[in-house]
Structure formats: C-alpha cells, structure tokens
Amino acid sequence: MSTPTRIRHHTPDLRTPMPHVTTPRWARPQPAMLPQPWDTALAVRHTRTDEVSRTAPRLFVDLTSPWAYLAHLRLADLDVTVEWAAVQRETTIPRTGLRGNGPARDHLERQLEAVRAEVRGDEVPTRVPAVLPHPRTVAAAYAEAVDLGVGAEARAVLLEAYWQDGQDIGDPEVLRRLMPTVIVGEHTLCTGDPRREFGYLVSPAREPLTNEAYHQLARWQEQWDGLGRPGPLALVGASGTVRTGVAALRV
Prior knowledge:
Elements: H1 37-53, E1 58-61, H2 66-75, E2 83-86, E3 98-99, H3 103-116, E4 131-132, H4 135-147, H5 151-163, H6 172-178, H7 180-183, H8 194-198, H9 211-226, E5 233-236, E6 242-244
Parallel strand pairs: 1-2
Antiparallel strand pairs: 1-5, 3-4, 5-6
C-alpha cells in the first residue's frame, strides 16, 4: 500500500511561514522588539503625553483633596495651560465611600485647615463633606472625561459638586446625574458609547469603563510614584522642577 498523503488544504500546518513573510531570518527584528498591539497603542499615547509635558506644566492632584478645589479656584481664570493628572493616595476609605469619623476624615480635616490658612474669607468651605469618596473612583471619572476631550469641564463639575454642594462624587449614580451636562450634547450621535449617550463614566464597581482611561490612570499614578508621591498637589514644570502645596499654584 502507498503511504497516505497529508491533507494540507484541510489542516494547514500553522508552523509553516505565511507566503507574505519573505524577510530573511537574520534581517528580522528580535521578538523583544515587537510589542503586542496594546503595547504599541500605549507607547504612542505615552509619547503624546510626554510631548505635552515638555511644554506645559503638569499638576498631579488628588481630586478628593481640598487642595484640588483650591487649585480649581486659583487656576481657572489664568491664561496658562496646566495639564491635570489625577492620582490616588493610599487610604482606608471603602470603595463605597466613608460616612462617619476615622483616620481618613481626620487627614482631610488637617488638609482643609492648611488650605484655609492660605485663603481669605469663605473661598473654601469650613468643613469636609459628609461622605468621603474613594480617590480612585473620582480619578476614573476624570480619566474618562479626559479621553472624551472634556476633562476641564468635568473637573469643574466634580469639584464644585463636592466642595460646594457636598455631593458624593464617588457614587456612580451621582456621577450619572452630574456628567451629562458636560458630556451629552444636543447633537450627540447614537454610537453605542454609554459615556456619550448617557453620561456613564464609571462601572457599578466604580472602575473606569474603557481601556484608555484605565491605562491613563496607571500612567498618572506611575509618574506620581516616580516623583516620590509628593503630596495631594504637586506641580511639575517644563524644566522638571517640582513645587508642592500652595507653591504649586504659582504657575
């Protein structure tokens, strides 16, 4: 009997090079030089971020801190471009927020005292709001807004809702009521994006909705960690100089 012939047209050998792969082995890049598709996207996005940081100061800020609200008040009307990066401090606040006393509230009360020492009159409130949101949830909402191109508008809504009205900006339902004012426009198209259509910015688990926002949070946090976590408000100038606290507001 003759030996059966392999049926290659039904079960192709995946190890066989595809016809279009004609580059000699010696001329091919090493595997380490070939990033996965998502790595390539991150590299491009990270390059764009670095290009901005060389020309504009970057403000690393905990959006749940009273320092963030003071920065909002002081920098809003300045004719200076400042790139905001939301960071997350280590905290004992539950993901659902803190209602009551504890070390986290004491910590923010001390921050508020320091902020009030730098202002006049009733520019900032006298007390920390009743509910302390988890920093990651608020940062996630801001990262999604930045990805949509409305970061400054969303940031203003978040900070004013929290420090002026005492709303729990770490609650997904509160965010869903607040954010459509700056995200859902009159001429918004039905694209299937829940952010654009309904103002959803975080998941029920209070995490980012998109990979873009998730990785943006990671980049901001990594950069802040690389600076040594210089506090809830830190400005990095174009020259790399770092200023913290009230000095960060002198841009």
